[in-house]
Amino acid sequence: MATKDSREVVIEASPEEILAVITDVESTPTWSPQYQSAEVLEAYDDGRPHKVKMVIKAAGLTDEQTVEYTYGDNEVSWSLLKASQLRSQEGKYTLTPDGDKTKLRFDLSIDLAVPLPGFVVKRVIKGAMDTATDGLRKQVLKVKKG
């Protein structure tokens, strides 16, 4: 059964500045504690990641995942192609400009292939949501400052 969550955060940056951090997937392990590594396997013609292999560690489990990224106007989404600990994963960032800030919405849906107690699943999702919103915000502001 899939577990879903969503969260919004305001980031003091433009959508372009935020997208630059999101699409720099190979740097994600430097600011996201769940990421052990990330490697772009294929890129689109504009250089943005298309297929990415990553090693994620959460709840004492390590999983090698391959995901496929797609892009729209001020949005980035990904779908799981391959993993050993998950049946499915769908993630999406939606960025809405608001003056000199951007409202960021993050949606995540995961379906675990391994049984875990509900409280562990909730803790894993909370960690993912914290990193994908507050952690991303901190990284964007750090990059923006130089």
Task: Explain this structure.
This is SRPBCC family protein. The protein is of the alpha+beta class and 146 residues long. It has one domain (3-145): Alpha-D-Glucose-1,6-Bisphosphate, Chain A, domain 4. Helix content is 25%, strand content 50%. The chain is built from two helices and seven strands; from the N terminus they run E-H-E-E-E-E-E-E-H. Strands 1-7-6-5-4-3-2 form a seven-stranded antiparallel β-sheet, covered by helices on one side. Strand 6 and strand 7 (101-112) form a beta hairpin. Helix 1 crosses helix 2 (118-145). It is globular, with a radius of gyration of 15 Å. The protein starts with a strand and ends with a helix.
CATH class: Alpha Beta
Summed up, the domain count is 1
Q: In terms of quaternary structure, what is this?
A: single chain
Integer-rounded radius of gyration: 15 Å
Helix content: 25-40%
End-to-end gap:
42 Å
Q: Give the strand content.
A: over 45%
- Main beta-sheet annotation: 7 strands, antiparallel
List low-pLDDT spans: none
Write down the overall geometry: globular
Reading side by side through the largest sheet, how are the strands ordered? 1-7-6-5-4-3-2
> For the record, what is the CATH homologous superfamily label?
START domain
Arithmetic mean pLDDT: 94
Instruction: Give me the secondary-structure category.
Output: alpha+beta
The CATH level-2 architecture is identified as 2-Layer Sandwich
Number of helices: 2
Name the helix and strand elements from N-terminus to C-terminus, one letter apiece. Answer: EHEEEEEEH
CATH fold category name: Alpha-D-Glucose-1,6-Bisphosphate, Chain A, domain 4
Number of strands: 7
Protein name: SRPBCC family protein
Pfam families: Polyketide_cyc2
InterPro entries: Polyketide_cyclase/dehydratase, START-like_dom_sf
